[in-house]
């Protein structure tokens, strides 16, 4: 199991309700992994509940950590966002330092995967929560991508549009500047067509909100990405 080979990931919010039937369809869809995480109302209780439900299936399960209190053993990986365009050092290294100070002796460093986040939708909860500077031009975003790869040596650079569909030309431009760091894209993928478009220019796409609004469209994104195999740039 290697997250560097993943092409399609479903993201589930522990604060949102999903039926057993829909969860089974998501987990058995052929997606490469289930990412559990959210921006608010994430608690240890709802993370544990969702993890236990996902663990009934063989799909890899990942916790994207947004609060220290919600961290629990049992996941295959723990993705740790560092919001590169945040104005608040808490979201760049503050919470990370706090967690390592508290749990450093217990951590399995092979399971921890740092992500360099660049939040690009000013209206999303994540941008407001982290104090992200979202008014960026193309050169700014490319610079953050280079910062992630060449300065911080992060394995993932995550372009997060969170609820709105991003600019494919910008995503493609950023991808052209990354070689060792994997480009994740998330935001507004609510159709097979959008899934294919982004899968051709990003290494990994993350599909989230459409799970809760149209399960059929969500499921179709998996096959759409599979059809782009060997077509990504």
Structural class: alpha/beta
The pLDDT mean sits at: 93
Strands side by side in the biggest sheet: 1-2-3-4-5-6-7-8
Number of strands: 8
What descriptors fit this protein?
globular, 233 residues, eight-stranded parallel beta barrel, 18% strand, alpha/beta
Q: Which helices and strands, and how do they pair?
A:
Layout: E1 8-12, H1 20-27, E2 33-36, H2 44-54, E3 61-64, E4 77-83, H3 94-103, E5 112-119, H4 125-130, H5 138-151, E6 156-160, H6 168-175, E7 182-186, H7 192-199, E8 204-207, H8 210-213, H9 215-226
Parallel strand pairs: 1-2, 1-8, 2-3, 3-4, 4-5, 5-6, 6-7, 7-8
Characterise this structure.
This protein is an alpha/beta fold. It has nine helices and eight strands. The protein has helices at 20-27, 44-54, 94-103, 125-130, 138-151, 168-175, 192-199, 210-213, 215-226; strands at residues 8-12, 33-36, 61-64, 77-83, 112-119, 156-160, 182-186, 204-207. It has an eight-stranded parallel barrel with strand order 1-2-3-4-5-6-7-8, surrounded by five helices. Helix 7 (192-199) runs parallel beside helix 9. 40% of the residues are buried. The model has no long low-confidence stretch (mean pLDDT 93).
Brief synopsis:
With 233 residues, this protein is α/β, with parallel strands linked by helices. The protein has helices spanning 20-27, 44-54, 94-103, 125-130, 138-151, 168-175, 192-199, 210-213, 215-226, and strands at 8-12, 33-36, 61-64, 77-83, 112-119, 156-160, 182-186, 204-207.
């Amino acid at each position: 199991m290697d997250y560097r080979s993943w092409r399609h990931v479903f993201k589930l919010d522990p604060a949102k309700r999903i039926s057993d039937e829909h969860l089974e369809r998501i987990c058995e869809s052929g997606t490469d992994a289930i990412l559990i995480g959210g921006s608010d109302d994430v608690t240890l209780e709802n993370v544990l509940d969702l993890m236990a439900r996902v663990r009934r299936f063989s799909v890899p399960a990942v916790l994207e950590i947004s609060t220290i209190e919600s961290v629990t053993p049992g996941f295959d990986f723990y993705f740790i966002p560092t919001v590169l365009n945040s104005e608040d050092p808490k979201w760049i290294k503050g919470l990370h330092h706090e967690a390592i100070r508290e749990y450093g002796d217990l951590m399995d460093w092979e399971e921890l995967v740092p992500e360099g986040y660049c939040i690009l939708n000013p209206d999303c909860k994540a941008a407001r929560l982290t104090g992200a500077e979202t008014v960026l031009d193309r050169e700014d975003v490319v610079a953050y991508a280079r910062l992630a790869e060449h300065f911080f040596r992060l394995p993932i650079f995550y372009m997060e549009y969170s609820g709105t569909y991003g600019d494919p030309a910008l995503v493609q431009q950023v991808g052209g500047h990354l070689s060792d760091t994997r480009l994740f894209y998330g935001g507004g993928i609510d159709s097979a067509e959008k899934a294919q478009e982004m899968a051709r220019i990003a290494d990994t796409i993350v599909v989230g909100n459409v799970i809760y609004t149209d399960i059929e469209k969500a499921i179709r994104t998996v096959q759409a990405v599979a059809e782009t195999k060997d077509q990504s740039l």
